[in-house]
Amino acid sequence: MLALRRVVLFTIFVVACAPPLLAQALPLTMSKSFNPSTVPVGGTSTTTMTVTITNPNASTITGIAFSDTYPAGLVPDVVGAYTCSAGNATFNGSGWSFGNVTLGAGASCSVPILMHATVTGPIVNTTSQVTGTGVPPGGPAAATLNVSAIPALSGWMLIALAMTIAAVAATRIRG
Description:
- The protein is α+β, with helices and mostly antiparallel strands.
- The chain has two helices and twelve strands.
- It has a single domain, classed as Immunoglobulin-like.
- The protein has helices at residues 2-17, 155-174, and strands at 29-35, 38-40, 42-54, 61-69, 74-79, 88-92, 95-103, 108-117, 121-126, 130-132, 135-138, 142-148.
- The strands form four sheets. It has a four-stranded antiparallel sheet with strand order 1-3-8-5, with no helix packed on it. A three-stranded mixed sheet has the order 2-12-9, with no helix packed on it. A three-stranded antiparallel sheet has the order 4-7-6, with no helix packed on it.
- β10 (130-132) and β11 (135-138) form a beta hairpin.
């Protein structure tokens, strides 16, 4: 009986004090932003949408994949210099995706895309989840772009503008 008690106590001690044999990997994190976050509607006013993926683990993660479909009213102009090492990257008018990305321990990568809006109001853009080999899925990430209407000049404002322009022109002619 005494020997059995010692075995049980020793087993409890080993189980309680031993480190976990296989530590669970953390999910990759994903963030998204628009800068500036408010723009007027139209192709001449742009914003930079940036998606950032971070590996919070102590080891390199491979096979990272994610995608982003543009909502109605959000139009890509130029893909910036992205820092993700992609095995394959696809950019088109309806969205983009990365596959087979590798991120070192604690590393991050980002994808900036210059965009413009064709509709007014808030535009919410949400990515897919980010997946990688040996880690649980992370994300998705979302950001809101606020799009304002281009202010129209009222009849009185047009008259005031015309009078100001005429006054400036008259001053330059006289003097």
